[in-house]
Structures are given as C-alpha cells and as structure tokens.
Amino acid sequence: MPSWTAFLKRRFPYINLIVSSESYGEMLARSLGVEHILFDRERNQVPVSASEIREDPFRYWEFIADPAKGYFVKVFATRRDFMT
Question: Which CB contacts under 8 angstroms, 24+ apart, belong to 14-22?
Fold first, then answer.
C-alpha cells in the first residue's frame, strides 16, 4: 500500500476522502490520513467492480463514467482517397 499512498498523495494532493466498496478502502484511507466512506459493499446499486470493468469494459460500459470512456476506446480515421 505505501506505493499507492505516495502516488495518490502526489497525484491528488488535496484528497480528503476515500469512497469505496472494497475491503481495502479503510486501510487506504487510514494510510492517507483521510476519512473513508464505505459505499454499497454488497454491490446492490453498482453490481460490478473496477477489476471486472478493466477486464471487460464493453460488457460493463453503462457503469463507466462518460469522461473515463475515452480511455477504453481506440479511434481509427481513414481517408477514402488513400484507398484508391
């Protein structure tokens, strides 16, 4: 956990809260010295984990926030005149 703690402190210097459905959320929050809020531990409201999304993002597309969808998409552009 120390490497994640250091990364998060550098990347998000003003972090003051961790919200998670994961068992490690409390430990991560404690290592950052911030509050932890456990959300939907049983996954009733959001029935998918981040690991499942990373493994098969298009299966769980509806659960990915719009600003994050670009991470999972590759865009190909072609020009018709190159094909003749």
Answer: 21/46, 21/49, 22/49
